[in-house]
Amino acid sequence: MAKDAPIYRRVLLKLSGEALMGDGNYGIEPRVIEEIAEEIAQVHRLGVEMALVIGGGNIFRGVSAASQGMDRATADYMGMLATVMNALALQQALERRGVTTRVQSAIDMKEVAEPYIRRRAIRHLEKGRIVIFAAGTGLPFFTTDTAAALRAVEIGASVLLKATKVDGVYDSDPMKDAGARKYDRVTFSEVLQKNLKVMDATAISMARDHNLPVIVFSLRKRGNIHKVVVGQTVGTLVEGGADAE
Ligand SMILES: Nc1ncnc2c1ncn2[C@@H]1O[C@H](COP(=O)(O)OP(=O)(O)OP(=O)(O)O)[C@@H](O)[C@H]1O
Ligand SMILES: O=c1ccn([C@@H]2O[C@H](COP(=O)(O)O)[C@@H](O)[C@H]2O)c(=O)[nH]1
């Protein structure tokens, strides 16, 4: 097989909202979104069908606002709106590179984005458009990781790629524990049993129940999305099967 041939026909790429901040501590760093869009455009040119879900942690997280006294459901709706802003910013950056895209929102806002319609999303992908799923699941008390797992299953993606701030799944949070050890491969049940918080349990359960492999890798290292799509070993593979020793 050619070195640059994608090993997947259709992928769901989940992008961390927080990674868009770059070195800042809020919002979108223009340089970062341009670099990410360039990388996605290059991978798309390999011929892989790409759907994207983007988080909102660079703008608003419901759970943080709720801890400061805001009603949780209201805060979560605000978080979902934050993901729409990120989706529109990414759409612009991709279209500047000649990639045709569609944003589909789980919350109806027809002046801004198409509503989420599964069959329509699949049709866009078949036509070579990148589909960006915005507003998460449209439901409070969920996350964009769960939205990513759900949409991946709905559109029949072969894999869920979680591009995030850390370079894989560790046996404890690497941002808090300098001695944390990284897995090359880990099973869904281990992630759940050991309560590894790289993704929320709802997303992991969804992936497990539908045999959807998940690859967790760093979005901060340029070229990683390409490497994963052509089958190079990057980050951590989370899948079913026997637990590692
Ligand atoms: N066992 C673990 N292995 C790896 N990362 C972990 C683990 N436990 C907790 N984490 C944390 O998970 C975080 C990645 O997931 P998180 O859901 O916060 O971000 P995201 O979904 O990529 O971004 P956003 O919510 O901004 O879209 C990292 O910041 C990391 O510190
Ligand atoms: O289905 C969903 C998805 C997201 N939210 C809210 O949005 C923010 C941002 O999403 P992240 O996954 O944290 O990046 C999240 O904190 C929730 O408040 C939601 O309610 N439902």
UniProtKB/TrEMBL annotation:
State the InterPro entries in the record. Answer: AceGlu_kinase-like_sf (IPR036393), Asp/Glu/Uridylate_kinase (IPR001048), Uridylate_kinase (IPR011817), Uridylate_kinase_bac (IPR015963)
Q: What range(s) does the Aspartate/glutamate/uridylate kinase domain occupy? A: 10-218
Gene3D superfamilies xref list: Acetylglutamate kinase-like
Pathway field of the UniProt record reads: Pyrimidine metabolism; CTP biosynthesis via de novo pathway; UDP from UMP (UMPK route): step 1/1
Q: Which GO terms describe its biological process?
A: 'de novo' CTP biosynthetic process; UDP biosynthetic process
EC number, UniProt record? 2.7.4.22
Q: Where does UMP bind?
A: 56, 76, 137-144
* Chain's role: Catalyzes the reversible phosphorylation of UMP to UDP.
Task: Name the chain's protein.
Answer: Uridylate kinase
Q: Which domain of life is it from?
A: Bacteria
Task: Name where it mostly resides.
Answer: cytoplasm
Q: Which CDD domains match?
A: AAK_UMPK-PyrH-Ec (cd04254)
Record carries keyword Nucleotide-binding: yes
Q: Show the catalytic activity.
A: UMP + ATP = UDP + ADP
Does the keyword Lipid biosynthesis feature in the UniProt annotation? no
Designated gene of the protein:
pyrH
Record localization: Cytoplasm
Q: How does it assemble?
A: Homohexamer.
Q: Which family does it belong to?
A: Belongs to the UMP kinase family.
Activity control note? Inhibited by UTP.
Identify the HAMAP family for this entry. Answer: PyrH_B
What does UniProt give as GO cellular component?
cytoplasm
GO terms for molecular function, please? Answer: ATP binding; UMP kinase activity
Source species of the chain = Desulfacinum hydrothermale DSM 13146
